[in-house]
Design brief:
The complex is a heterodimer of chains A (about 325) and B (about 260).
Chain A lengths: L1 H6 L2 H33 L9 H20 L5 H30 L11 H10 L1 H35 L1 H14 L8 H7 L3 H26 L3 H9 L4 H40 L3 H10 L3 H29 L10
Chain B lengths: L1 H5 L12 E12 L2 E13 L4 E5 L6 H9 L6 E6 L2 E2 L7 E4 L11 H5 L1 H6 L2 H14 L15 H13 L5 E5 L7 H18 L2 E5 L3 H7 L2 E5 L6 E6 L11 H13 L7
Parallel strand pairs in B: 3-8, 3-9, 6-7, 7-8
Antiparallel strand pairs in B: 1-2, 1-4, 4-5, 9-10
Helix pairs in contact in B: 5-6, 8-9
The chains are: A mainly alpha (about 325), B alpha/beta (about 260).
The structure holds adenosine-5'-triphosphate and magnesium ion.
Subcellular location (chain A): Cell membrane
Keywords (chain A): Cell membrane, Membrane, Transmembrane, Transmembrane helix, Transport
Membrane topology (chain A): Multi-pass membrane protein
Chain lengths: ~325, ~260
């Protein structure tokens, strides 16, 4: 073996080869982004956008840093590895930014104000970040509070009707009757039944999130293999222990399916609650901006909303991966 | 230290409990009809005895074990441990079920630790848990999850999970059925030496006549469902037994005849 290595200095040859791929990917990604910068800076805008220059500088800086990361892999291997992995996406994004720039701001192919160029959206963030942030926080609070209350309530209901026949007798029919009702159909009642539109919105979101969690927790608890209970009982586990050490962990995979469905339902309820009720939040901001035909604001808010939704889903996946690490073959998000 | 604690040199003669099964009958409701499973079974087991139960598949052996464990009350008759009526499960009677039924969300270590955990004595018993896992040869897998184990390994974990509780009656429902023949022989010897050192009472269901004769002091043979006791005899051979013992071969032929398999021998 050592002879072969001596004849073919494979180690260095390999690292040169990978070093070259990293450098080439970095340069290609950098050039694509520099192209986007040139497209923004080199021609005059057709419209009246204030951030074109800053946008061009920003995109250019990104392009340069991709090139630097690709070339300095020897000293910063993690940065280079990232550029290599993200390379194809970065190149595609750079080209899309270039095309978008030309089509929206320079050649007039895209009708304005419906499809603003990237600097139009950047402008929203730089000029209205305070307002956007306050709406974002409003949405986040509504979602977090409603989702947490709803899922905790749904979980407790699910466990109790899955466990106790008496609880099942009383709660199950109610759940079957009210649960499938779209939470938003209760709008007219909810907003005068609750003291504030905020608490009413929380109720709507909690209701939307609670139902799937309750149903899936319930079916999870009810379908636990009875052999688990037999084993636990012969080992001296008491009834309360049977709930916490057997029923709940066994039902947890089901509970998480319920939580993912609950998150989707909570997003929809959030939008409705914001539009009809609290008159604040990203959903409200989008509607309001559309009324003023400020489509750049709509896009800017949509991007924030996507970040909020995707971020919550990612967080939920992280929690699930930790709690259910004992399962095999988990889907990675 | 701990290994010694698990296997004291002197037999602890009084560690086992007596078990009295008196006129126990049981039945299940199956689609409106009644399926009779046990028919006036009576059996008195002395403390420290090792009783093997043999019988045709589906005759009601596992059902009888469930009644002994206290998981279900019998339809008729009574069961007593040390003279006290059995009304529910108790950790002095642990069961190793036909399926290992490990909790998939617990590691091997935590599966074995469940008994002490439920008794609230896990803090003092950590070393004992380690030692028991070591005893079944799985210390390397203490942190593994059940889905990472083979069938035989899972069955060994189930055995460890029962043994760690230091039971007075160990109830074994074909615990070695899924093991390869080599592991099976090793585990048989392990069970015998554990039983001899700890002195617990053992009730073993098995399909394997040789296994019953190699392990037990007494063999009980059941009829077809509804199970009735067809034969009940002692195996008074000293331990350690040798599989080639001619007396064992003779008992084997008699047992097979009682099970209705004389022709095939
Ligand atoms: N919960 C139940 N409900 C209805 N019938 C049952 C139930 N449990 C067991 N039975 C029936 O009782 C009979 C005896 O079952 P049991 O499990 O005790 O048999 P076994 O002797 O252990 O058989 P094997 O050796 O195959 O394990 C079977 O016919 C089975 O169908
Ligand atoms: Mg059985």
């Amino acid at each position: 073996m050592s002879d072969v290595t001596a004849l073919h200095p494979g180690d260095t040859g390999l690292s040169v080869a990978t070093g070259r791929t990293e450098a080439l990917t970095g340069i290609a990604a950098g050039l694509a982004w520099l192209l986007a910068a040139v497209a923004a800076a080199a021609f005059d805008d057709l419209g009246d956008w204030l951030e074109t220059q800053n946008y061009a500088i920003g995109v250019g800086v990104f392009g340069l840093s991709f090139i630097v990361l690709g070339l300095t892999g020897r000293w910063f291997p993690r940065g280079a590895a990232w550029v290599t992995r993200a390379g194809p996406w970065l190149i595609a994004l750079g080209l899309v930014l270039t095309l978008w720039q030309l089509a929206a701001a320079k050649l007039g192919w895209l009708p304005q104000p419906f499809f603003p160029p990237p600097q139009g959206i950047l402008e929203v963030y730089t000029f209205e970040y305070e307002e956007l942030a306050s709406h974002f926080l409003a949405s986040f609070r509504l979602l977090a509070v409603g989702f947490v209350i709803g899922t905790i309530a749904g979980f407790l209901v699910g466990v109790s009707i899955g466990w106790s026949h008496k609880a099942g007798y009383w709660v199950h029919p109610v759940l079957r009757f009210i649960g499938p009702l779209p939470a938003t159909s209760l709008l007219p009642i909810v907003f005068f039944a609750f003291p504030s539109s905020w608490s009413a919105s929380i109720f709507l979101i909690a209701l939307a999130a609670g139902f799937p969690v309750a149903v899936l927790t319930w079916s999870g608890v009810a379908n636990v293999n009875t052999a688990y209970y037999d084993v636990a009982r012969t080992l001296g586990v008491k009834p309360l222990g049977l709930i916490f050490k057997v029923a709940i962990p066994a039902a947890l995979p089901n509970v998480f399916i319920g939580l993912f469905m609950a998150l989707g339902a909570a997003f929809s309820a959030l939008m409705v609650a914001e539009l009809v009720g609290v008159k604040a939040g990203i959903g409200f901001y989008i509607q309001w901006s559309q009324g003023w035909a400020s489509y750049a604001n709509v896009y800017a808010a949509l991007i924030l909303l996507a970040l909020l939704c995707s971020g919550s889903i990612t967080l939920l996946f992280r929690i699930r991966d930790r709690l259910l690490s004992w399962q095999k073959g988990l889907v990675k998000w | 230290m701990v290994a010694v604690e698990l296997r004291p040199e002197q037999p602890a003669a009084s560690a086992g409990a007596s078990l009295d099964i008196e006129n126990v009958s049981h039945a299940f409701d199956l689609d409106g009809s009644v399926l009779r499973v046990l028919d006036s079974v009576s059996l008195n087991v002395e403390p420290g005895e090792f009783v093997a139960l043999l019988g045709p598949s589906g005759c009601g052996k596992s059902t009888l074990l469930r009644l002994i464990a206290g998981l279900e009350p019998p339809r008729a008759g009574q069961l007593r441990e040390n003279g006290q009526p059995i009304t529910g499960p108790h950790p002095s009677r642990v069961v190793v079920f036909q399926d290992p039924t490990l909790f998939p969300w617990r590691t091997v270590w935590n599966n074995v630790a469940l008994g002490p955990e439920a008794q609230g004595s896990l803090k003092q018993q950590r070393e004992r848990v380690d030692a028991t896992i070591d005893l079944v040869g799985l210390s390397q897998f203490a942190k593994a999850y059940p889905h990472q184990l083979s069938g035989g390994m899972a069955q060994r974990v189930a055995l460890a999970r029962a043994l760690v509780n230091d039971p007075e009656i160990l109830i074994l429902d074909e615990p070695l059925g899924k093991l390869d023949s080599l592991t099976r022989l090793t585990m048989q010897s392990e069970i015998v030496s554990l039983w001899r050192s700890k002195g617990f009472t053992s009730i073993l269901v098995t399909h394997d006549v040789e296994e019953a004769l190699f392990l037990a002091t007494r063999v009980v043979i059941f009829s077809e469902r509804p199970a009735r006791i067809k034969a009940d005899f002692r195996v008074d051979l000293p331990y350690p037994r040798h599989r080639g013992d001619p007396r064992l071969a003779e008992l084997r032929r008699e047992s097979l005849a009682l099970l209705g398999l004389a022709a095939s021998w």
